[in-house]
Write a structure and sequence with these properties.
alpha/beta, Rossmann fold, six-stranded mixed beta sheet, 13 helices, 14 strands, about 20% strand, binds NADPH dihydro-nicotinamide-adenine-dinucleotide phosphate, binds the ligand N[C@@H](CC=O)C(=O)O
């Protein structure tokens, strides 16, 4: 049985949740998938590049006792670090860079060139690097997987890849940014925008820079990822109409809720000839519309296909589970599922 050397680049909400999930699933990974793992690298700007090919102490890391980690010299860049950690898998979980996708794209390039699988929750890599990274992964016979980038927790890309052959998207409509949903609901309950952002941050779902959520860019990046990967239409952000929720005032938001037509940040893509039209904008929705009923950190994606008139994927994410906020935990599940898929593809040869 192969023991996989895992490296975490980014150790925030999702990185921590992934490590906890890996610990919980250790026996299941071994017994059902013949996967053993050890953590041989962790890196953030604050921690630097930490590596130990014999394995880092996961409990010390989760407890924040970084001084207890026994590390080997790992240079000062991603390539040295991957070598020092003898990485088999890179989990790229750094902050979103809406404009360029960097440095995450370079991290993934380095991992694939090193010979590791690259798995990410970072949407910027798909929007700005999908074709290049996919081609590189193919040449290297490694996997570049990114299920967590859109509706973290739900199967979107893997569902289309595995279960919807010869289907083409004609229209997509969804609520794909959970933070804006939480913010709108918190404002409806009486909070200010700043207080509502803080609630989303406490739930671990806001972007490192929450203006990406508030101003619609996180949803736009997801729209671009869907169009690029699932509709084979690379779509720069400049081609998407983007309007966030910042300009809505609290009274407007509360009045809309009182009237039974709450605001939701709606994302939409329509196929038009060989191209698409896409937007992200707040809309007042009426209850028969399933998007109107999306609550808290939950998300919904509705696809119209040339083969199926309507396919809806709903991800229910209550704020908290027994072990804490659920948002990062469900995203971590998508990352774990990608890890298993990468190994299975390697096992098939
Ligand atoms: N939270 C969620 O629910 C979801 C998040 N995502 C995506 O997952 C990724 C991680 O999110 P989350 O964990 O919430 O974010 P956090 O802000 O909690 O953590 C980000 C981590 O990345 C590190 N980091 C940021 N930039 C760099 C860099 N240039 N080099 C090295 N490390 C870096 C930060 O540490 P330091 O500042 O020390 O460098 C920190 O450890 C993001 O791309 C996000 O869009 C996707 C789906 C859901
Ligand atoms: N900030 C994002 C996190 C997941 O992509 C969101 O709120 O949906």
């Amino acid at each position: 049985m192969k023991t996989y050397n895992l490296c975490l680049l980014g150790f925030g909400n999702v990185g921590r949740a992934l490590l906890i999930l890996l610990q919980e699933k250790t026996a299941e990974l071994r017994e059902r998938y013949q996967i053993e793992w050890r953590l041989t690298g962790v890196a953030t700007r604050r921690l630097g590049w930490l590596a130990n090919p014999d394995g880092l102490d996961v409990s010390a890391l989760l407890a924040g006792q970084f001084e207890l980690l026994t590390t080997v010299a790992s240079g000062d860049d991603v390539r040295d670090w991957l070598s020092a950690a003898r990485a088999d898998v890179l989990f790229e979980l750094t902050s979103l860079n809406v404009d360029t996708g960097q440095p995450a794209i370079e991290h993934i390039r380095a991992a694939l060139e090193h010979g590791a699988h690259a798995i990410t929750a970072n949407k910027g890599t798909v929007v700005h690097g999908y074709r290049e990274l996919q081609a590189l992964a193919r040449r290297q016979r490694r996997s570049f997987l990114f299920e967590a980038t859109v509706m973290g927790g739900a199967p979107i890309f893997s569902l289309f890849a595995s279960s919807l052959p010869a289907s083409n998207i004609i229209r997509f409509r969804g609520v794909v940014n959970s933070t804006s949903n939480v913010i709108l609901e918190e404002i409806e309950r009486g909070k200010s925008l700043e207080q509502a952002i803080q609630t989303a941050q406490e739930l671990g779902i806001a972007e490192t820079d929450p203006s990406a959520d508030v101003d619609g860019w996180d949803a736009a990046v997801k729209v671009s990822a869907i169009a690029t990967v699932l509709m084979d239409t690379p779509t720069p952000l400049a081609n998407i109409e983007v309007e966030g929720i910042r300009h809505l005032d609290a009274e407007q938001i509360r009045a809309a809720r009182a009237a039974g037509t709450p605001y939701k940040l709606v994302a939409q893509i329509e196929k038009i000839g060989e191209g698409i039209r896409a937007f992200v904008k707040p809309q007042r929705l009426s209850p028969p519309d399933p998007l109107a009923a999306v609550t808290a950190g939950s998300m919904l994606a509705h696809f119209e296909l040339d083969t199926l008139p309507g396919l809806t994927i709903t991800l229910d994410v209550p704020d908290y589970g027994p072990a804490g906020p659920l948002g990062p935990a469900v995203t971590a599940y998508d990352v774990l599922a990608d890890f298993i898929r990468a190994v299975q593809s390697e096992q098939r040869g």
